[in-house]
Amino acid sequence: MSLVEELYDYDVLRRVPEPTAFIVRVDEPSIVLGSRQADDVLAPGALEGYVVRRRRGGGGAVFLDRDDLWVDFWIPADDPRHNDDVRAAAIDVGEWWVQTLMSVADRDWTLHRDGVTGPDEFLVACFAGRGPGEVFLDDRKVVGVTQWRVREGSLVSSVLKADSSVALLPALAHVPDGLTSALDHHDAITLGLLRDLHAIESALLSTEVSGSWRRRELLLIR
Description:
Elements: E1 5-6, H1 10-13, E2 20-26, E3 30-33, H2 46-49, E4 51-54, E5 62-64, E6 69-76, H3 86-104, E7 110-111, E8 135-137, E9 140-150, E10 153-160, H4 179-182, H5 197-204, E11 214-220
Parallel strand pairs: 1-4, 2-11, 3-4
Antiparallel strand pairs: 2-6, 3-5, 6-10, 7-8, 8-9, 9-10
Helix pairs in contact: 3-5
């Protein structure tokens, strides 16, 4: 039996009728595991040292801290933005991010349109691989994307890290050779966008970019 609580009450979530953008904040360093990751992917003591939750949806573990920009989009099945194609649904959200980032900094942002790629041993950490809808700059990840789908709709999760993910490494039970280098992703600091995160959030959720949303803030605590 898992000791890790789920990130949402997913039974309640799937009954939400309105398209909703959840802006998720953390009060202290936190780790969110992918749906298929067992508790023992984490080192002994990690459950006491961090707030740990499990999301429904693919991908690996993500380390999160206070300044990260974390937005989850709940898109009901009857909403025009809902896409039955799993890969296309992630790409749609990635395109919102690219449009948003272009409005803040005109750079060569690129979108990963293929399936999940990367060495299997690195998939323990979300930001060490590539998945559809994820945004890159100079071959380094900028925005991570994952999703959970049910007949009532889809929840597409997206994160722009404020800082490095290397703090995840001590929390893992096993760190594969090369994972540290694979986690050399971009973040708001390396991009020079730390002061722009609020503006990026506002632009991402604007009607012109992603449409109309009910906005809800979620604070992740113990």
